[in-house]
Amino acid sequence: MQHAISISKLSKVYDSGLAALQEVDLDIRNGEILALLGPNGAGKTTLISIVCGIVNPTNGKVSVQGHDIISEFRAARELIGLVPQELHVETFETVWDTVSYSRGLFGKKPKPELIEQLLRDLTLWDKKDNKILELSGGMKRRVMIAKALAHEPKILFLDEPTAGVDVELRKDMWQLVRRLREEGGVTIILTTHYIEEAEEIADRVGVINKGRLILVEEKKELMRKLGKKQLTLDLNDVLETLPEALGRYDLDLENGGERLVYRYDTQAERTGIGSLLADLNRAGISIKDLDTEQSSLEDIFVTLVEETR
What we know:
- The protein is α/β, with parallel strands linked by helices.
- It folds into two domains: 5-223, P-loop containing nucleotide triphosphate hydrolases (Rossmann fold, 3-Layer(aba) Sandwich), CATH 3.40.50.300; 228-307, Alpha-Beta Plaits (2-Layer Sandwich).
- The protein is built from ten helices and 14 strands.
- The strands form three sheets. It has a six-stranded mixed β-sheet with strand order 6-7-8-3-9-10, with helices on both faces. Strands 2-1-4-5 form a four-stranded antiparallel β-sheet. The protein has a four-stranded antiparallel β-sheet with strand order 12-13-11-14.
- It is elongated, with a radius of gyration of 25 Å.
- It starts with a strand and ends with a helix.
């Protein structure tokens, strides 16, 4: 089966000796939303830049819908829309002209109805005749997104698209992303520092650190496999120390002895909660209240990155 993007043994070493990417293998499926997470300097932007033809790889191969990004650059690049981190817009052009021009750069015939729809979707229609220099930072970001979509790409890269923008744009952005995937079958790859957004919108999650792709996993499966649950028990009486009978459990005494925290693996056949509660009762420890909590994607991400340091 042909993937939207196939990456094999991709490496990038800069002249300074910095290994920005190391032997990255990744297949991105058609029509999926993939979130790439990683700390600053992990290699996310380098990976995107290579696929988009902005940076040359040191080793490895990349193909876009079967087109090699080097030997078939034009065919590959035409399939891609890119919203970079940095704002690059023609300051003295109008919103309408700069978005229309971006479509023409790819040899596409004029399609004013598409440009209008993009501007309306991104709340830019009333700004269509304004010059870019008259716009706020958030509005300029919207223009960047419209430019990336003007030539109707099949694959869209969003490199930190909502960093430093207002909540309204963030919501508009994710609504548009969902619609592009649902109605147009567009494959979307995004990098983000807002892990809650990846948790909400992505089908799969990839984690990059120090130029290496640590894992790529279905989001639900990742959280099922790596997410741990926590049971918090508020006690009626202060407990000075844990009784020896409770030593077999992964328990922490917190809040000055007023709370017990029990951590357990969601993959285990038995959680051990039943036997824990029975042993607490036998030890004469009474419970005032209890609550359960599961690890978030952010917790999992932090754990994975710390393990590769």
